[in-house]
Design a protein that fits this description.
homodimer; mainly alpha; Four Helix Bundle (Hemerythrin (Met), subunit A)
Chain lengths: 242, 242
């Protein structure tokens, strides 16, 4: 048994996750002018909401699926499918989040992909898509060779956390640059910390706390599925259900 | 023996680390106007150099000390002292890096600590200082109680990687905001990707690669000191040398 119970932790993470998404939505609605899907700046406002929902909260929740203690009883397959489904929904939201910013840029004739935030964010999305495809091919396809599964498992686990680190850096740099865009010519500039700046800085710190707690839960040895290094990982998982 | 040899990895990391510091210095010298220590914008230029050197490269190197295979032979104490010394030098550079930006802000009447980058960066530095003091008190003081060492060891290890994740986010958001400051009113704005933007974006991605490789090396089970969960960690280490 873990020293710290997983259930209270997951309730806390659930609350934090809802707060991250809700506050990002509130920022969009209250300060950034609301939401639309028409290439306007209101379309851009979907970008942070969809990215925080998909790439941070759903992705983080999907990574924690195998830490649920009652998932440790066999069969493992339903939990694999839940993990794949959550990350797939996350991935769809992330693609919509990219569409939101590209459409806005294109309509406003703003160049795409110039800032370090965009380079890093796209790197995280590309790694995430590789992670999903490789995970599907290795852990769900019944004809995946055992050597591939054994070789890829630690890489998949490492990149799970590494991509989350990139996501944190992308969220922080994204919020930071949005505040500079928004408040540079404002009557109360960012440097005077108007209410919006306090709010969005606080949101950034909350996102960090959420992400670090996920990384911590993933690293905690007592919360790792006991079969993590057992024969189980070397079996094609769709065959397990037979 | 690890599947991947540590020596070539550490040579690669050494080269990448020198490149991160060297390119940050080159950015300061070639594009940002050089270096000074007089409250001018040239004083600010020490901030990225000192932070990348201390908080990324020296910190990352210090974290990897226990992954050096020939450190695994006893006594462990010299390696503990090397780890403490490297992190102490890193900490001194980080403090100087903070002085560089605060002095610059104060002289130019720019408010301190308003951006999300600054909130995150200061959080990383505060956690780093707690980490150093707690590490010293728990692992080097011979009268540190065994229960404290056993309790604190996994926390110290986790925060070692977690702080590095924060540092990556701080570096990315810092470079990103500096490029917006520098290039917003330039004849070639950031969005047109002038040479400086390419250079600094590339530097940001290099910093990410360096940091992710350190996180990967720290997570690799085969590279962990074999005694990581043995009696060794529960002994007051200064007593080991007796």
């Amino acid at each position: 048994m873990p020293g710290i119970p997983f259930l209270p932790f997951s309730i806390l993470q659930g609350i934090l996750g809802v707060l991250c998404v809700g506050l990002t939505g509130f920022w969009g609605q209250h300060w950034l002018g609301g939401f639309a899907w028409d290439g306007s700046s209101e379309m851009f406002n979907w970008h942070p909401v969809l990215m925080v929902t998909g790439m941070l909260v759903l992705y983080g929740s999907a990574a924690l699926v195998y830490r649920v203690p009652f998932s440790w009883e066999r069969p493992k397959l339903p939990w694999k499918l839940l993990h794949a489904a959550l990350t797939l929904v996350a991935f769809i939201l992330v693609i919509l989040g990219l569409v939101a910013v590209f459409e806005f840029h294109n309509k406003k004739k703003i160049p795409n992909m110039y800032s370090l935030h965009s380079w890093l964010g796209l790197t995280a999305v590309l790694l995430f898509s590789c992670q999903w495809i490789m995970g599907f091919a290795s852990f769900l396809l019944p004809w995946a060779p055992i050597w591939l599964r054994a070789l890829y498992k630690p890489i998949h686990v490492f990149f799970g956390s590494a991509i989350l680190s990139l996501v944190l850096a992308a969220c922080i740099s994204g919020i930071n640059e949005k505040l500079f865009f928004r408040l540079t010519n404002s009557t109360t500039p960012y440097s005077k910390l108007p209410a919006e700046a306090w709010f969005a800085n606080f949101l950034g710190m909350l996102i960090l706390i959420y992400g670090l707690l996920v990384l911590w839960a993933l690293a905690l040895p007592a919360w790792k599925r006991p079969d993590v290094n057992s024969q189980d990982i070397q079996e094609p998982l769709l065959q397990e259900a037979r």
